[in-house]
Amino acid sequence: MKKVIHCLFILILFVTKSFAQNPAVEQQITTLSKQKWQWMSDKNVDSLATLFHEKSMFVHMGGSWGKTQEIKVIKEGTIWYKKAEVYSVTVNIIDNTVILLNDIDLAAVVGGNEVINPFMVTEVYVNENGQWRMGSLTFSKLLRAVKIK
Question: Which of 79, 54, 85, 101 is nearest to 149 (CA)?
Fold first, then answer.
């Protein structure tokens, strides 16, 4: 009986450890997020279409929509994500899902007007068949002053 309990304890430790924060995954997602900001700035809709999951959702100050609309908004320049100045990144791993928070100042052109806003951006990534896909991107405006010069 003691042997069974000991084996179960080791198994539980192993399973718990396997779902703990993984530095390699954290780095991979942080790099992918950084690349995504560049793709958005460059209006690289082909790379973004591959990154965005078919069921992905996007929440902005002016509304929320799915992948097709987000790609259209970027392609047509309705929102041009000129530059995201990232001040901090927090990554949390839950099974095959990663939640990344970016504290940013976003310089953008929205409806022809250049704006800079401080945001906490929540990015949700899901690993499907060994590939990370974005499931959600949410912009939450912060009350702090813009830091970007």
Answer: 85
- Cβ neighbors of 15 (< 8 A, separation 6 or more) are none
Contact 142, 59 (CB under 8 A): no
CATH number given to 21-141: 3.10.450.50
| Cβ contact 30:23 at 8 Å | no
In angstroms, rounded to a whole number, what is the distance separating the alpha carbons of residues 114 and 146? 14
C-alpha dihedral over 102, 47, 134, 127, to 10 degrees? -120
Residues in the chain: 149
Proportion of the chain above pLDDT 70, given as a percent: 87
Which is higher by pLDDT, 16 or 115?
A: 115
